Amino acid sequence: MVVRRYVPLFFPLFSSYIYKLCSDIPSIEYTTNAVLNDFQSDNVVYLELRTTPRAIPQAGITKSTYIHTILSCIAQHNNNPNNTLHTNLILSIDRRHTLVEAREIVDLALSFRPYGVVGIDLCGDPSISDARTLSPAFVHAKKEGLKITLHFAEAPASSSDEELWTLLGWQPDRLGHVIHVERDSAVAREIVRRKLGLELCLSCNVHAKMLVGGAGYGEHHFGWWRDLGVSIALGTDDVGVFCSELSEEYRITAEHFGLGREDVKELCKSAVGVIFGSAAEKERLRTLYAS
Ligand SMILES: CNc1ncnc2c1ncn2[C@@H]1O[C@H](COP(=O)(O)O)[C@@H](O)[C@H]1O
After folding, report:
1. String of b and e for 216-233 (b: at least 16 CB within 10 Å)?
2. What is the C-alpha to C-alpha distance for residues 2 and 79, in angstroms, rounded to an integer?
3. What is the pLDDT of residues 112-123, one digit of tens each?
4. Which atom of ligand 1 is nearest to the CA of 154?
5. Which of 37, 192, 258, 281 has the most CB atoms in a 10 Å sphere around its CB?
6. 48, 154, 199, 249: which one is catalytic?
7. pLDDT band for position 180 (50/70/90)?
8. Domain ranges, residue 14
């Protein structure tokens, strides 16, 4: 099933179905391994997975056990010399969370940092628009050196100037979606000035009709952001929901924006500078792209 409408269908997918299916250690391991194997099979060489830590008391799972389970699958995959894919983990804070819950996720991210957590994210239903209450958690994360990425200007409800400047005040390293940022706005200029990396998910935005006027691939904001010279990492948002692997996202982008092989390579190379992985990981990727 490809989600054709945004908020009313998309978010309940997780709470009504997926969370009920991923409700014990074996199902969390199964899905994590399936995701890693799928990205490896798609010839992806670097992945930043993100998940919202979830306690499942009836299965004896705490948020810490949940993260540990996923990190163990990632470590096993990363340590297999047959795999070219390297993966790191980002922990998401959801807009529905309280400040106490958000702070707890930051603390978990800090304690699991030596085991592959590289940063935190703000995700969730953008119609829950006031993210200001979560500010102290993100400010603390930044102070402690965690990387920050944010679902940013994803829907009109989460795109007021006040909200966007609040989010920029958290000093994020990357921004996702950036759909409702006006082309010549002060926010757009600030994103360029700070050289923030952008995470763009074309299929998700088109299928879920998130673009203004239900626009298609050709009118996607990828085009004008690319012209501004910012680093762009294409993403899938969720392969299971939008039915498009990462290689397909690059193919679609190449088709609609007239990119040749070298352009696609340049696009991948420019994303290396904004990954949350280590200097050694960046070096590995640069070497790979140079070959
Ligand atoms: C349109 N794009 C999006 N916008 C905002 N949040 C999104 C999202 N895609 C996914 N999520 C967030 O990821 C959670 C599911 O996985 P985890 O439980 O974290 O592993 C969803 O509940 C949602 O909050």
Report:
1. ebeebbbeebbeeebbbb
2. 34
3. 999 999 999 999
4. 4
5. 281
6. 154
7. very high
8. 7-290
